[in-house]
């Protein structure tokens, strides 16, 4: 292909992207464009020079290249496009996320788009070429490493990471205060008179905030015995099934050594309730169970599940607000928000008999 044609192709692609972006949005660097389009740096430079001459972009020394404050053919009231990247793993939480995101984004006057990515990738590794101005990323159920952080930082639009605590990193994030919520679960059981407690590690070991928060408050609050039961769940496993299998295998052998159980998610807590039912252990008369997340399913199970609820709508409101701030004002340090949890007491917990 002639060099001139390559320059024209890259020019048109970049111009289409710029048209969909807001003034002040960051544009691909020459190095990033070179790697994405697999062409020589000179080819990208020529396309960039033309965009600069025509007033589409401005260059700021030491900061990068950005969409010009005013660009031709751009409506003054253009809607911003915000994309949500979700793992393609079937989950009630992810489906709820998609619905909440679409509604709140549209209510804010923006266009909402959702992309599903392979959950085995942990994060969205390849950004779709379709135009967008902001991105919200929900990581899959695995730990993020340095390479994942590097990939995220190369995204050429403002982005927010959901459901991960990223203290010490210059990355915007929104998540629930899981450690506080788990501590609330322990405190609830202690106030009901439970002194022999257990925490069921039913989800993949992404981080230990829920486990640590529960154990710390349980010991601080005077629990006589605190047991950790690790289901050794890995990404791709059914946490509901793992919780059920571990409890139905363990309790007949070792007995019921606790009267209060905290489970790391509502989904797996339902597996625990099923296990207790099949083992003919009454809830909450013999054991109280607390979940985490506040899913709709827990409310309609029998007995209805006591849970720590995180307001997902508030999480997305904060994520969208962070993106709007980035688009309007640029960068000024990482923006982080922890959503306060709420204890929702239902039928699965009761006083020690």
Major β-sheet profile: 6 strands, parallel
- What distance lies between the first and last C-alpha atoms, to the nearest angstrom? 80 Å
CATH architecture of the largest domain: 3-Layer(aba) Sandwich
Quantity of strands, as a count: 14
Total domain count: 3
CATH fold topology of the largest domain? Rossmann fold
Proportion of strand residues: 15-25%
Number of helices: 11
- Unreliable spans are none
CATH class of the largest domain: Alpha Beta
Helix content: 25-40%
Secondary structure category: alpha/beta
Summarize model confidence as the mean pLDDT. 86
- With strands numbered from the N-terminus, the spatial order across the biggest sheet is 4-3-5-6-7-13
CATH superfamily of the largest domain: Response regulator
- The radius of gyration computed from the alpha-carbon positions, rounded to a whole number of angstroms, is 24 Å
